[in-house]
Amino acid sequence: AQSVTQLDSQVPVFEEAPVELRCNYSSSVSVYLFWYVQYPNQGLQLLLKYLSGSTLVKGINGFEAEFNKSQTSFHLRKPSVHISDTAEYFCAVSDTGAGNMLTFGGGTRLMVKP
Amino acid sequence: EAQVTQNPRYLITVTGKKLTVTCSQNMNHEYMSWYRQDPGLGLRQIYYSMNVEVTDKGDVPEGYKVSRKEKRNFPLILESPSPNQTSLYFCASSFGSSGANVLTFGAGSRLTVL
């Protein structure tokens, strides 16, 4: 069984400041890692994913995440946020076996202030 | 446009009145899934289907039923809704059932059970 912990339920930040959204997971097997974003009144859409290879993954809208196997973390970062980045962000994990059973974290609400 | 369509988007009902939330995808995806989203809990999987006539329970299946008679449709049925099923529901689909596949989400259905 897997679990995902997003350490911050809300992150307020000023526009153009850097941001890091933290995600830790636990699993007894190898995993794939994802970040999804949910804009107000919309469904979730993929921001980025780690399947294998380079541990630094770049996604859409200037976001990136780094997979750290020893710390079982997959933190999301952006060097300079915009008002339009205000949304809820979900970290998710699935194991590398068959079955698309995504386990989601509780979500982090990013609030970008002018 | 490739999409997952859910209906209704908003519904208020009363305890015990059967309802169905429809989900349809136009991408010829094999895998479909239902999630519920509750504050602080992230998304939890209710049921999933790896192909036509193949369905299985997720993490929180109690009180729900599904069917997959056609590849494109995956309705969620609440036979006797209760207030603890008040939630935001998402249908999602992907090309295959491997954990590496990216899910495409519908816009969500907000259900209130009085």
Q: What would you say about this model in short?
A:
The complex is a heterodimer of chains A (114) and B (114). By secondary structure, chain A is mainly beta.
Description:
The complex is a heterodimer of chains A (114) and B (114). Chain A has 114 residues and is an all-beta fold. Chain A has a single domain (3-113), classed as Sandwich (Immunoglobulin-like), CATH 2.60.40.10. Chain A is 0% helix and 53% strand. Chain A has no helices and 12 strands. In chain A, strands 2, 5, 6, 10, 11 and 12 form a 6-stranded mixed β-sheet that branches. Chain A has a 4-stranded antiparallel β-sheet with strand order 3-9-8-7, with no helix packed on it. In chain A, strands 1-4 form a two-stranded antiparallel ribbon. In chain A, a hairpin with a 4-residue loop joins strand 8 and strand 9. The N and C termini of chain A lie far apart (41 Å). Chain B is an all-beta fold. Chain B has strands at 4-7, 10-13, 19-25, 31-38, 42-51, 54-57, 65-66, 76-78, 87-94, 104-105, 109-113. In chain B, the strands form 2 sheets. In chain B, strands 2, 4, 5, 6, 9, 10 and 11 form a 7-stranded mixed β-sheet that branches. Chain B is globular, with a radius of gyration of 13 Å. The A-B interface holds A 4, 6, 9, 31-32, 34, 36, 41-46, 49, 51, 90, 94-102, 104-107 and B 4, 31, 33, 35, 40-45, 48, 50, 58, 90, 92, 94, 96-103, 105-108.
